[in-house]
Design goal:
By secondary structure, this protein is α+β, with helices and mostly antiparallel strands. Helix content is 50%, strand content 16%. The chain contains ten helices and eight strands.
Length: 300
């Protein structure tokens, strides 16, 4: 199948005013590039730490999963190949499966309202960057309006699609989406690249108001955390949270060359971290016995 020209420019999660969460370069990479005077991509490869995130409630787990799947769908759809379209379809169906459980849309609306109320308090405080605050609030207001406009039955078209339902049903079987299992799927995959992308973008547009809002909420949640340096004695660290300040997300940053990764478990009130040494794929990881400095961020 001949490849066709891709549309110019990457697709952003948030189509509003450009703020930090829309930048393709992480804050850590930006800081590292400023210090080393290296190009951002080279500096990130050398200096950026690995950041491990642990959600502490079901809502945050759902948001992180949907954001992960949405990013994955966008990435594979931009590959503009049959295999990319197959992978993007898998991500789309996973998003649909999660979004159809419970009322994720209502949870997102509640979080938007909560953050808008919190940000509104800062408008009258001295020392606040009012222009940046207005930009963030404008993004949240627009995302809230988009989410309300899509209606409570926004998933109806995707759920009722016989084409998508057949792929979802056969995907539960290993190798169940072969051409002899789903000849209509095979036919669609062999359509022109722009026609295939147009169909997929129509499906994705149904989910975009939800996923764009989640991407923005996750950025704000991460911004609410204050990084601090801690030490895991003999590879173990215990955290007890204040009951009046519920923590939604814990972020642990370790140097990329440390050879360690965290195993984290916890709830709203406490959290335990064990640092395990990576010993390759054939050897079971073991907890390090050394005192390990790391960066901890607790996000509300």
């Amino acid at each position: 199948m001949s490849s066709e020209d891709r549309e110019p420019g990457p697709m952003r999660f948030t189509e509003g005013a450009a703020v930090a969460q829309n930048s393709p370069m992480s804050e850590e990479a930006q800081k590292a590039s400023e210090k080393t005077n290296l190009p951002p991509h080279e500096s990130a490869a050398v200096a950026a730490p690995l950041i491990f995130e642990q959600p502490l409630n079901e809502r945050m787990r759902t948001f992180l999963r949907l954001d992960f799947l949405y990013s994955q769908a966008l990435y594979h759809n931009e590959m503009q190949s049959q295999w990319g379209s197959r992978a993007a379809m898998g991500s789309l169906l996973d998003i649909l499966a999660i979004a159809a459980r419970g009322d994720v849309r209502a949870d997102v609306q509640k979080e938007l309202e909560r953050h808008l109320a919190q940000l509104n308090v800062f408008q009258s405080k001295p020392g606040v960057d009012s222009a940046r605050l207005r930009t963030v609030m404008s993004n949240l207001l627009r995302l809230r309006a988009d989410l309300v406009a899509c209606g409570s039955n926004y998933l109806g078209g995707l759920k009722d699609s016989e084409f998508l339902s057949a792929i979802k049903h056969r995907s539960a079987i290993p190798g169940g989406t072969c051409e002899f299992d789903l000849p209509d799927f095979f036919f669609w995959l062999n359509q022109a690249t722009d026609a295939r992308a147009r169909s997929f973008n129509e499906w994705l547009a149904t989910l975009r108001p939800l996923c764009d809002a989640i991407a923005e909420l996750l950025w704000i949640t991460r911004q609410h955390g204050k990084p601090r340096q801690e030490i895991a004695r003999a590879g173990v660290y215990h955290i007890t949270f204040e009951r009046d300040t519920p923590i939604q997300l814990v972020r642990i940053a370790l140097p990329a060359d440390s050879g360690l990764y965290p195993e984290t478990s916890g709830s709203h009130y406490r959290c335990s971290v064990r640092l395990l040494a990576w010993n390759g794929l054939q050897t079971r990881p073991v907890q390090t016995t050394e005192d390990v400095p790391f960066t901890l961020t607790c996000c509300t």
